[in-house]
Design brief:
Helix content is 39%, strand content 13%. It is of the alpha/beta class. The chain has a seven-stranded parallel beta sheet with strand order 3-2-1-4-5-6-9, sandwiched between helices. A two-stranded parallel sheet has the order 7-8. The structure holds NADP nicotinamide-adenine-dinucleotide phosphate. NADP nicotinamide-adenine-dinucleotide phosphate (NAP) binds next to helix 4 and strand 7.
Length: 320
Amino acid sequence: MLLERALRYGPRRLRPSPKVLSFRDGDPSRLAPAAPDDPPLRADHRSSVRAACRALRRPRVDSERDCAICLGKMSAAALIQGASRGIGLAMTGSLLERDPDLRVIATCREPSRATALQDMRNEFPARLRLLRLDLEDEASLAEAAQQLGSEELNLLVNCAGILHDEQMKPERALREIDPVQLHRSFAINAIGPLLVAKHFHAQLPKKGRSVFASLSARIGSIGDNRAGGWYGYRGSKAAQNMFTKTLAVELARVRPDAISVALHPGTVATDLSAPFRRGVSRKPVFSAETAARQLLDVIDGLEAKDHGGFFAWDGSPIPW
Ligand SMILES: NC(=O)c1ccc[n+]([C@@H]2O[C@H](COP(=O)([O-])OP(=O)(O)OC[C@H]3O[C@@H](n4cnc5c(N)ncnc54)[C@H](OP(=O)(O)O)[C@@H]3O)[C@@H](O)[C@H]2O)c1
């Protein structure tokens, strides 16, 4: 662990490590030899990198370039699904700021129209990649997964979700139930993250910690349902929770080091909550940036025992 941190941050930067970013085994055979004019290693970097090279049984590193190659080959990657707006967008930005070595893949329905995400990509061209993925179009998931090739994901977060749009609003009573809108809620909130698991679970490393998280909502808790209403959103989030739990059972067999959880972000000031925030004035309303930071802190703190759990933004467990 110390070696991992030393390699990542250098001996003077042993800040608490986001655990999602643990290294997988390096592949010394893929490293290019250092060129004669490469700048030498930084003094504060040398001993830790050499120690890492010894551990990985690769030739001694003498240059900054070689060191960068080494770090780049082993740096981690995260995928944020539903990154065009709201919490997914803020989480993408937060991850890029948090770790200078992390590569982030951000997916959304229409990358060409996701202007905030494009601005982010212009700021981090080497580390942010945009892929098209529409949860209502399974072929787009297969294509996005294919584009990743053999890339390993240490973190995958499902952020996309729907509560309302021009056609849909949460039902206050049975007379407002519309099967078409119910199908839509289930397609995006419940079936969507499950399809992401179907197409992307193979990208989670076979060995070493990884996290597969899906943003759910406390309102999907059956045990916590006191207010009623919102049939489509509640039901689809409850189904999403069951899928998360069921996925956790399968992942324990095929990716034993992966941790799969459902997360409740709290009430967050996004388009999704905008029409309803007046009704929750007694609860804190987080900005998307604060929510993203809080959720990433929860993710960093997850341990094997948390696998298959449902947690709120402050890390407290929520009853299913
Ligand atoms: N905000 C809250 O107070 C709150 C509370 C509890 C739980 N949550 C959960 O947190 C998650 C994020 O919510 P948010 O507040 O960030 O929502 P938001 O601002 O409304 O953003 C929703 C995101 O979902 C994407 N999306 C919708 N349909 C999609 C589809 N078919 N395929 C792919 N992406 C799709 C949207 O993409 P487009 O830009 O293409 O439409 C957008 O990026 C949701 O799962 C929500 O249920 C939020």
